[in-house]
Amino acid sequence: xxxxxxxxxxxxxxxxxxxxxxxxxxxxxxxxxxxxxxxxxxxxxxxxxxxxxxxxxxxxxxxxxxxxxxxxxxxxxxxxxxxxxxxxxxxxxxxxxxxxxxxxxxxxxxxxxxxxxxxxxxxxxxxxxxxxxxxxxxxxxxxxxxxxxxxxxxxxxxxxxxxxxxxxxxxxxxxxxxxxxxxxxxxxxxxxxxxxxxxxxxxxxxxxxxxxxxxxxxxxxxxxxxxxxxxxxxxxxxxxxxxxxxxxxxxxxxxxxxxxxxxxxxxxxxxxxxxxxxxxxxxxxxxxxxxxxxxxxxxxxxxxxxxxxxxxxxxxxxxxxxxxxxxxxxxxxxxxxxxxxxxxxxxxxxxxxxxxxxxxxxxxxxxxxxxxxxxxxxxxxxxxxxxxxxxxxxxxxxxxxxxxxxxxxxxxxxxxxxxxxxxxxxxxxxxxxxxxxxxxxxxxxxxxxxxxxxxxxxxxxxxxxxxxxxxxxxxxxxxxxxxxxxxxxxxxxxxxxxxxxxxxxxxxxxxxxxxxxxxxxxxxxxxxxxxxxxxxxxxxxxxxxxxxxxxxxxxxxxxxxxxxxxxxxxxxxxxxxxxxxxxxxxxxxxxxxxxxxxxxxxxxxxxxxxxxxxxxxxxxxxxxxxxxxxxxxxxxxxxxxxxxxxxxxxxxxxxxxxxxxxxxxxxxxxxxxxxxxxxxxxxxxxxxxxxxxxxxxxxxxxxxxxxxxxxxxxxxxxxxx
Length: 721
Known about the structure:
alpha/beta; Spore Coat Polysaccharide Biosynthesis Protein SpsA, Chain A; 9-stranded mixed β-sheet; elongated; disordered N terminus
């Protein structure tokens, strides 16, 4: 009969001791029960909708009842009374969203930090969703580069992304002075009717500092409740800001009562366009700015001024659709229990440090999605056909061609694994050098090498590009580590690119390729995270680039590598000091004890007395650290973990006729560390070594096919070594 289905006796007694003191186990069982009831309700709604389609009058009656129950009045008692009704399952009252109906979401996003926030918001939406999603991202160039790569590598089924150039929209709103910390981008929601496709009828608009605690389809369904000229779905503002009594001479923009918060908006775009929304908000803004001079809360001030003049435009959403954790918030008055919440809005500049009696619960919910493994959200929506994705189809084709019974299957599979990648995880600034000689240090690392970052930044003042192999939780640990480091926070020319963990191998060459691909300089120094470059190496390399005409010649400049077995080292400040330490046994040539062939061709005996650069020839297993132009070939992805990952790259450089030139006054020193997990696997696992040998042979065969007769020397050299 369209009655609400009660979840459990607990729901009607949210303040009972049994509920408030429930254990983690009780909470988990309640969550399972809620999921089961949600599924039951979904089936009931479907059955009821079929029954109601045969009874039009009954259908209409239920709708009128719903409107009277949930339309806000601005009265907090009415709002609180509506919460239970709104959160219970309105089987016969709320039209269900079609199973495969696409939900459209618009987000304005600009800069590095906002891009991180968008990911957490999207995770919370994906976690609960059961429908295809279409995100419309109004982004600046930075956010577009970051998010386009992220979603392309995330490959979430039934999710479509479209970008709109925020910089092109600046002229539409730049005439409005805005004091809010969001800047000019905080005004762009005003022009969505003009920006989004003309055939898009409705959209949910979200701020980046939003966390969902329910299926976004529930919010999408609210569009069915709009009537008459209602075109904006908004939650009442939960602070006293628009009442104008927060401090002496506080003068807010005009608003209806407490006004409305624009962190969550339901926009009926087609109707807004017919109402000439563009003209409406512009005229209002022009009129109010004559006395107000600027906005304090960006687009929200203008939305509220328009609503003050035209209150019929608004459908007031229940406040659990936008629980605002701002300063001076009254949000606690709009819900009886945290289980009532659907959307949390961190709309204070203090973000997670805001004051609220339930802030611990909110913070934990937010941190759950912040650290949640995004790979687990690559779920198929069964019964909903996904749009054809070329990348996904190619990946499936490549994987299907592999033999799963092959003992080296996991190695081969890693070559085609698409790792979710978040470029420029932290703020990045780079000013190109006027002389076009700049060099970026390129390296890759995992969580256990974070301690090297500060030391490298002290030794190398130039730009750095780093690929970090981390889980979602580790990425947040890294963020806290970096934000707590004065050394790292003082450097803006370091690009941190997060490649998220997946699979059992460390994809060392993929990481190197990611770091190489995102440099902003004409040259790069291909290093490793465990090495400290000599003081002054950055400037020395820039001079060498000119001296050796790297711009017009195919050269790989070798920086000789040394190592110490001491964790505490008085770092040599000159070549003379290094040679003295070498003679005393404090330093050694790199891998002298275990893998002499890797660096023997550098000819350290000659380097001791060299005063000018000298050329050396390629030899088998040579793996020096080199400076090259940014257009040099990528590393071969088939090599993962330990073994042959650099050797193969140097071989490719030689095949492409690069000259290897040793720099006489450059050096780098490898610092000691515990053996990596991969080298341990190499040493202890016979199958690992067999597979590496197989991959080497296949690589050499590929080289022969690609470079012809000239590549035969690699096969010969390997057989003789």
